[in-house]
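Subject: Sanity check before I submit

Could someone independently write out the structure tokens for this chain? I want to compare against mine line by line before I put it in a report. The sequence has 93 residues.
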Amino acid sequence: MTELKGKVGRLEEQIGRAEGQVGQLMKAFQIYNSTLLNVLSSKGVLTEAEAEALSSHLLYVPPAKSKYFTEEVRQRLIEILKGVKEGGTRQLT
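---
Independent answer below. Compare away.
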């Protein structure tokens, strides 16, 4: 039984690390997409209105539907994405 608890504990740690890495990856994609929209807009490929409209779609986060991706996690992710869009830096802790 103790061995099983140890394995479950290690699995929970791995899941926690994976969640953190996914959060960092999503933040990186958000920054990349925002930068791309800014570059395209500054080069005249997109108008400011088009860039703003597209950037609002970058904040879409699908509904929470799993054991690990809860509504609380979803709301935290939305806060992080809004901070990135506004140019702020927020910790993923």
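---
OP: Matches mine. For the report I'm noting this point. Residues 2-85 form one domain.
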